[in-house]
Amino acid sequence: MMSAEEAYSAYQNKIQNLDHLSLGTFPTPVHQIKLSDGTTFWIKDDGVCSTLYGGNKVRKLEYILSEARSRKQSLIAWGDSGSHTLKACYHFCLDLQIPLELAIFPYREHSLDRLFWQGRKNDIIQITQKHSMLSAFLYAKAKQLFTHKHLIRLGTSTPYSTVGYVNAAIELHHQIQEGLLPTPKTIYVAFGTGGTVAGLLIGLALCQVPSKIVAVQCVDSLLFYKWSLKNLIHQTLQLLTIPKDFSQSVLQHLEGFDTSELGKGYRHMTSDSQRAVQTLQTHGITIDPIYTGKAMASLFNTYHRQHGEPVLFWNTHSCT
Question: Which is nearest to 44 in space by CA: 292, 307, 320?
Fold first, then answer.
């Protein structure tokens, strides 16, 4: 099996030839939070990486939008009315003048999210309202097949975009080396379509950072996403010209999946996630009860297992 040093060398050789745009301000800050009950943890705050739209989509779109622009392709994306992917794509494509079509469907009672899209059509962004997830997906796939638009996957999770979070883990490694924070025993991350977690796992393995990741489930069908996470790791390693067997080292950095915070499913706001949002709000940190609130709740509910070791919460929610 390829050593970590050999894999990192292969990564460095490949990364130089991967085009990307500069959409965010990096490295993102790290700082410590101390609560009145004695809970102490570190935050890596990707929420503040852009004044247009922050969060974990920025690192991924730097690669996706670069790829689409080099091919001179217009884009199509689909998702529910509250999708962070769609909102991030909207803001950055409008700013870069990249033609984009959004196929949007309503999700349960989230009418406020639907209001966001009213009056948003313009010469660059086309918005198509669909009635269901299936109709939005089929519409987007048809556009991809028959008009050759570049289809953005749910959550922007592709091998190409996952490189953004490989870089993010290496960025964290450099901050640890600089003494900005101690090496975390555990990193808590919201888990949706898997791109963020896959990239962080690969980056930690490349840099031989001993931290383990707790992937906190925020969407249904975890069994499928366990498989897709491994598949995404394999595909990203292939893109980086790193042998597939290095995935054994990568997966050693996965502490496990926390399935206890999902509640009734995708977009369900649990009482624990809402309390986590309120707690961080008092410290000037913006998270949401759907994804990052659940990851934060997982940290709070399992903090006693860390035995005083440093823990890190990776904020992937936009603060703008």
Answer: 292
Q: Cα–Cα–Cα angle for 21, 244, 215, nearest 5°?
A: 65
Q: Identify the helix (H) or strand (E) that includes residue 101.
A: strand 100-105
Q: Report the alpha-carbon angle 91-95-97, nearest 5.
A: 115
- List pLDDT tens digits, range 130-179: 989 999 999 999 999 999 899 999 889 999 999 999 999 999 999 999 99
Helix (H, G, I), strand (E, B) or coil at 1: coil
**pLDDT averaged per 10 residues, the chain (length 320):** 93 93 97 94 98 96 91 90 92 94 80 62 88 94 93 92 97 98 98 95 98 94 77 97 96 96 86 96 93 97 93 95
User: If you write DSSP's letter for every residue of 204-252 in order, what string do you get?
Assistant: HHHHT---EEEEEE-SS-HHHHHHHHHHHHHHHHHHTT--GGGHHHHHT
126 by Cβ neighbours in 10 Å (0-12 / 13-18 / 19+) ranks as middle
The CA-atom distances, in angstroms, between 25 and each of 51, 77, 103, 245 are 9, 24, 29, 34
Q: Which two tokens stand for residue 240?
A: 């980086």
pLDDT tens digits for range 11-26: 999 999 899 999 999 9
Q: Report residue 37 as tokens.
A: 């009950």
3-state secondary structure of 271: helix
Q: Which helix (H) or strand (E) is 38 found in, with range?
A: none
